[in-house]
């Protein structure tokens, strides 16, 4: 009886380990096929210069497991990313910031700096502080906006029906950012990445999810829809990360290292999702 149980356990273990190995091989094969596909579609394409403005989803991890690095590797030498994202920043302008405060990292302030309309003095602990001074917006091909969770947490108003460029609202700030950058460089193309799934914690337990909990401005899905609406208005490529990553309360620990930020697996899937949408847009615009 014991021998039979041992054999059964060994068989189960062998099947389990074999399944993991097969899954890893499939993932490696898919990654290789994607690399080949990118290379074939982008043969002869000049290097695409990309500026990213956003929050800690891109800024927190900047090593070779970070989102920007992963996207650059997906495109080999065909995409060059300048990552100007700043932890804690939002798209909308928080009116608690005074006009005389240059330590403002919201989208409108960053855009004003990039177009010469204002000075922004970023503290040295932001990596973007060492990069922004050398950015010439006229030399870029794409700008990607990746905001939303900090607007959601702050309860930022989604839009102002009487002023589509109201920078204190989520949609208005993005509209202002895109139109202002477009004036500085008419050839710029844009991409908008939606905020991701998030959770609320208390004493180590999930107490609510962004899918149904509002901090005053709406649930996460409403900010996701706002991103899509702005993308349509400006013919930007759009990535719905909530639908694309399919994160939920059950698989959250696989993709979230805390209530908000992505694990290594989450960053990889996010980067691959963005890469596919970006590739389609590059190919569409070079036909």
Distinctive features:
alpha/beta, five-stranded parallel sheet, 287 residues, two-stranded antiparallel ribbon, 12% strand, 10 helices
Describe what you observe in this structure.
The protein is of the alpha/beta class and 287 residues long. 44% of the residues lie in helices and 12% in strands. It has ten helices and seven strands. The strands form two sheets. The chain has a five-stranded parallel sheet with strand order 2-1-3-4-7, sandwiched between helices. A two-stranded antiparallel sheet has the order 5-6. Helix 3 packs across helix 10 (264-285), helix 4 (107-114) packs parallel to helix 6 (170-184) and helix 6 packs parallel to helix 7. The mean pLDDT is 84.
Major sheet summary line: 5 strands, parallel
Report the helical percentage.
40-55%
Radius of gyration: 21 Å
> What's the overall average pLDDT, rounded?
84
Number of strands: 7
Strand order of the largest sheet: 2-1-3-4-7
Discrete helix count: 10
Low-confidence stretches: none
Shape: globular
Structural category is alpha/beta
User: Strand-and-helix sequence, N→C?
Assistant: HEHHEHEHHEEEHEHHH
Percentage of residues in strands: 5-15%
Distance between the termini: 69 Å
How would the blueprint of this fold be written?
Layout: H1 2-41, E1 48-54, H2 56-59, H3 67-74, E2 79-83, H4 107-114, E3 142-146, H5 149-154, H6 170-184, E4 189-193, E5 199-202, E6 205-209, H7 220-233, E7 237-239, H8 241-245, H9 252-255, H10 264-285
Parallel strand pairs: 1-2, 1-3, 3-4, 4-7
Antiparallel strand pairs: 5-6
Helix pairs in contact: 3-10, 4-6, 6-7
